[in-house]
Amino acid sequence: MKMFAGNVLPVITAPVMCDGSPSNLPLLLLVEDNVDLRTFIKSQLTEWYRVEAAADGEEGWEKARILLPDVVVSDVVMPRMTGIELLQHLKSYMATSHIPVILLTEKSAVENQIEALDYGADFYITKPFRQDYLAAAIRNLVARRRKLFAALVEGGKVTTQTPEVQLITSQDDRFLRKMVAVVEEKMADVNFNVDAVALAMNMSRTTFYRKFKSLTNLAPVEFVRDMRLKRAKEYLDAGAGNVAEVAYLVGFSTPKYFTACFKAHFTITPTDYLEQRRGL
């Protein structure tokens, strides 16, 4: 496989990212001031991503705030706003701090790479590069982050990252911890909903929803429901009440709805679960 240099056009052989319609594909924001390279990279990635393009860092920053893409691939040396400046903006703004960033540059000096990594870049790729390498870097980064965030919210608890896997910013760590704390505090309130969560997080409903969905691959309402069900199971294990009492303890409007959700999540009704517990 040749590298992209001049007019060489290699072919990407990466596997399909996800099934379903194009609207379900991850959203990638490509920020590159070289028109030919921007057009080429976009054409090579559209089979696996919904690709939005920007001609410089300033345009990229505006699009990132509006679109909240799953990943940003950006050149470093650009007019109006460099890739490093774009990276700083993305990582310091709460609504975009979770977005992974891959930087592309002709600079190969170690100090330039260290600067990029210090500001929170997830990958630093030096031009010229193999297009299949870029595709693999994007694919693996998106997959690793989704796996990490699934683990972060498992059981309603935010876990500690291992030293070798630092894919979450301190802002996002605080965001998830606060989210868990808010839900734990308010879950008994049957009127507690996504709007209340967003308000508690000091974010607009739309921004909060899109950021949380991007972080965890769950809608906030699904996360709240799952936390309620896991807490309900803990109450049932502890003998804190019967099915109806536990349903109200964790904020379900009716025992019937609680039973339906519990069975869908745990593949057993809460009544049968209690019977099983008593038989232990």
TrEMBL record:
Q: Which GO terms describe its molecular function?
A: DNA-binding transcription factor activity; phosphorelay sensor kinase activity; sequence-specific DNA binding
- Respond yes or no to whether keyword Transcription regulation is given for this record: yes
Question: Do you know which InterPro entries this protein is assigned to?
Answer: CheY-like_superfamily, Homeodomain-like_sf, HTH_AraC, Sig_transdc_resp-reg_receiver
Start and end residues of each HTH araC/xylS-type domain: 177-276
Keywords associated with the record: Phosphoprotein, Transcription, Transcription regulation
Pfam families in alphabetical order: HTH_18, Response_reg
Give residues where 4-aspartylphosphate occurs: 75
Looking at the record, the residues that make up the Response regulatory domain are 27-142
PANTHER family named in the record: HYBRID SIGNAL TRANSDUCTION HISTIDINE KINASE C, TWO-COMPONENT HISTIDINE KINASE
Designated name of the protein: Uncharacterized protein
Taxonomic lineage? Bacteria, Pseudomonadati, Bacteroidota, Chitinophagia, Chitinophagales
